Amino acid sequence: MEITTNPRGKFSIQIKYVLTVSISDYYYMVLREEWGFPSFSSECPICGGSNCCVRIGYYYRYVLSLEEEILLLIPIARYLCKRKNKPKIEDKTFSLLPDCLIPYMQPTIDTLMQVIGNKLIKKKTNEEIVSLFYYQIYEVKLNISSSTLRNYYELFEQTAQKIKTFLREREKDDYPEQVLHSLIDVYWYLSEFQDPQYGKGPGSCSLWYHESLGGYRNNAYFLFGTPSQFRY
Ligand SMILES: [Zn+2]
Fold first, then answer.
1. What is the mean pLDDT of residues 140-159?
2. What spacing in Å lies between the alpha carbon of 127 and ligand 1's midpoint?
3. What is the pLDDT of residue 2?
4. Residue 21 lies in a domain
5. ipTM above 0.95, yes or no
């Protein structure tokens, strides 16, 4: 069950925010007010105007990370567009979602991949995977069950469809690409992804996918999960 305290109104978009530190470092730096958020003073992501958007605080959402052994309520910065330019879209606010996170899901991309690896490669049962979480994370609010895992598998299947379609489209543009058939193919493709600009691993593949489709300026899809702008 997804727990989120996002109080956003009807019109808000989520923008991928590239972190160069771990999610727990981000968390502690924001809490200590040591984190410098971008001002977007030269270009508002919503209307393109200069000196337009202002930061209006945070919403909080849970982040579950096996690699960092945490379940934390993470602050997500929100901004308001003051309409300096005539916007192309209705949204009035946007938020910066750290790039290792998945919209409306607790696990980080790496944690989701660990779950999928345990399921598809190591052939672990749901019960074994659930106990892995309880073994690694000591947090009373941790609430993982087989049905949580089924949501994760469903999300991964959607991700697999997106990357397969994307690679097929690129192939038409004469990029020689690996053809992915099974979910296991997709798992290995994401795990072994490497790009000189975006780096290694599933999170890097997710950024590469998003940016190749034009990023927030082009209202691009996320490879993992569905951000608020695509939920109606
Ligand atoms: Zn604006």
1. 97
2. 48
3. 35
4. yes
5. yes
Instruction: Give the count of domains, the chain.
Output: 2
Q: 7: CA distance to ligand 1 center in Å?
A: 20
26 CA to centre of own chain: 15
Considering the domain boundaries, does residue 5 fall inside one?
A: no
Ligand 1 centre from 12 Cα, in Å?
Answer: 12
Shared-domain flag, residues 81 and 52: yes
**Is the distance from CB of 92 to CB of 79 less than 8 angstroms?**
no
Would you state the structure tokens that stand for residue 51, as one six-digit string?
């000196």
Residue 76 lies in a domain: yes
pLDDT at 29 over 80: yes
Structural domain boundaries enclosing 34 = 12-98
Closest CA to 1 of 77, 68, 62, 74: 62
CA of 13 to the centre of ligand 1 (A): 13
Residues 117 and 69 in one domain: no
- Residue 143: is its pLDDT beyond 70? yes
